[in-house]
Amino acid sequence: MGWKAVESEEYESSAPAVQAHFHAVRAEEALRRDDYVQAEKEGHLASEKFLQAAQRVSDKRTIDALVLLAENYEYRSKVARTRNPRPVEAEEEKVRKTETQLNVAAAEMEELWRRLNEIGLSSPGSADKNLLMSSRHLSSSLGDSFCLLPAKTRTTIGVVATAVDGGSTLRAAVASRMRNQRQRLMEQQLGGRLDPRRSGGTSTNGNGSATSRYQDGRGSSGDGDDSGGQGDFVGLQETVAHQKMEIVRLLNTVKTLSSENTKLVKKCEALTNIQAENREIRDSMDLFKKDYNQKVSREQSKLKMQEEQIAKLMEEARLKDDRIAKYDKWYKTLKAGAKAKQLSQSRDGGNVASSFSSSSFVPNGGGPSNSFTNSSSFHAYSPGSEESTGSSATSSSRQFSRPPAHPNRRAL
């Protein structure tokens, strides 16, 4: 592709979905130019890239969409191939390459048959007697699906049953592989069994000549060589049928293993995503624990300070309560003293009034005299005497009107 040389760096560094988009655009342009060969190539490449992109994502809807696009461009590639008016040399080369690959696959199947024959699992009648012993030769977890098959399904399996995935390409490949395998087996069986028994020196020149001779031997006279050849032909048919069943089993096993492998790959991707999510959750939890511990330590220090402040306030409140109790006691004592003073003052007032009334009517010097005109009363008055009288009255009133001492002073 010429465009790939220009945009090779961008193409190689892009994701499979982007590469598929490039191929899809090229396929559309080729279809508009009626270049069906290029459209077929680009459509096939776009389908492959879409499938690769589907294998790298985990979202089900995205996978379904990518698979649908892959099927669409595969269908367009087939349509372009059918619209191609004449086959090209590249297609013939591809066919030859496919035949070569099928021949290699047939050789591998022949090698597999040889190894099965060595362990006694290739002959038609040896499957039942080696049912219990064959399990140690199997390396798959599918049990005896490689080399054993139930008796009910032996007669119904044929060439048509090799359509594993329903694709025409797979059916053609399996049919060609089985045909080549059958030809090689017939050559080996006929070459190994017929030459020692024939005394007339008649040799087989090929697969077709030997088969035609066995078919002609059915209507001929009862010759010993023909009857022996007929028996060999029947045995060969049984061997070929058994090999067909083994090939079918192996293909089905490969399909099952591939599906299991796909499931395991998807499961591993899902587990990888889950591990990444768990790692993120673990990191977020560690960060949350760190922040939480810092906040808790700050709140604990604040709480401790508040507890100390509360204890200090409670101590101050206790001291105030004690002081209030002392003041209450002092107030009650003061009130009782004031009440006693009031009672004593009321008694003293009554005594003073009675003494005053009696002294105003006492005669002075044997005759009646007026207290207001008595000179002695005037001469008896003096400021000093008044001050002394006032001081004595004040001292007596102070003696009765003094309150009790303050609780704090009393304590001192």
Largest sheet: none
Structural class: mainly alpha
Q: What distance lies between the first and last C-alpha atoms, to the nearest angstrom?
A: 116 Å
CATH architect. name of the domain at 1-86: Up-down Bundle
Which CATH class of the domain at 1-86 is shown? Mainly Alpha
- Helix content bin: over 70%
Shape category? rod-shaped
Total strands:
0
List the total number of helices. Answer: 13
CATH topology of the domain at 1-86: Methane Monooxygenase Hydroxylase, Chain G, domain 1
Residue-averaged pLDDT, rounded? Answer: 69
| Poorly predicted parts | 124-166, 192-222, 361-400
Q: Output the radius of gyration.
A: 64 Å
What share of the residues does DSSP label as strand, in percent? under 5%
Order of helices and strands: HHHHHHHHHHHHH
